[in-house]
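dumping this here before i forget
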Amino acid sequence: MEEVINIEENRDAMAVRLQLMRQAKSRIRMAVFEFHRDAAGRRIMAALAQSAGRGVQVQLLIDGICLFYGLFYSQEFQTLSRMGNVHVRVYNPFKKDNMRHPNCRMHDKYLLIDDSWLLLGGRNVGNAFLEEDIGKIKKDRDLLVHEQEPGRGQAYRQLSAYFESVWNSPYVQDWEWAGISSEMEKDARYQLKRISWESEKLYEDILPRLSFFPADSVELAANPIQADKKDPQLFRRILRDAGDYGNVQIQTPYVILDQDMKNEYKKYLRDARGITIVTNAPERGSNYFGSSDLMTRRQRILDEGVRLCEYSDPQQVLHGKMILAGGDITYIGSFNLDNRSCCIDMEADLRVKSRPFHDHMEETFQELLRHCRIQEEGKKDVGGDLYWPHSMSKKRQTAYRALSFFGKPLRRLM
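structure:
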């Protein structure tokens, strides 16, 4: 039996990660797209270092481009990677001799602790996802799964096999240590110990106060792992559920549709009526390509019958991803409604079948609608009671105009 809970707040997401790492007994496996060297990133490094120091085996899998610009010059990360019990590998590393498919990235974000806990969602490691910097918050989501029979749950077995398939694949290489002086390494070890001690004081154990939901099933839905154009397995699985169950509600940071996605959509859905999409309003969206695409294609999306809800809040932007279908199916993971997630990047979601959890996430979805401008074909736009009608800056307007003319060839890069 597996039980699940969503982690919505950034501070809770950090607390869960730190507690899971502190209580790990034998093994930590972590895969992440972006890993920043900011305060949140150093907290995670310190927790991993503390676990490794206790004899826990740590395997860290990071996307190559993001590691190159995010961690290459971090003394703490360099020191962590050299510790005993720590093994770092890189997916599709950004190197001169590895430029065949530089655009294919590992967009997964998950954590496996021993054989009893797994955490999977849309959060990267960084302040915007795990701290509470007002004005810079990415509103995100993780799914925490507890395996009540260690090692026997479907989600654990599938995600464990998935991790190992990537870890041992030809698309992954060992991290090459850049090298720091012994004095710098000594200082970094001290800083990691200090941060670990500080984190234990700041973040209390959170697991005892979480109320889990029973699940009929939790299973992995993922794209192929090769660093090349991919068969859209995850998107296809979502479309099948959408066609079978109907009443589809989607939360996605942005919407970028291409012909490949339209072809798949037409195979499984007669039309888009009955679909509600919550996404960032272009006035506030952090992905300029996605926002520009929404502005130019908004009317076509509405003409398809989609109920389009544009989210606007003065303190945060959406980064979380979720799909609700029927009355008991919930997807949570890294999949965005865009062409990269469909056919380019590695993506991993968990598909939960559970009516009580679906009802709980339905309430979360309805809360998002309070911050939205709701648009439907043939109806007047309606603003939720918490919707923030933010005006668009001239910088954004200029950028969107430019992207609408010149951005189409580059859409797959974002």
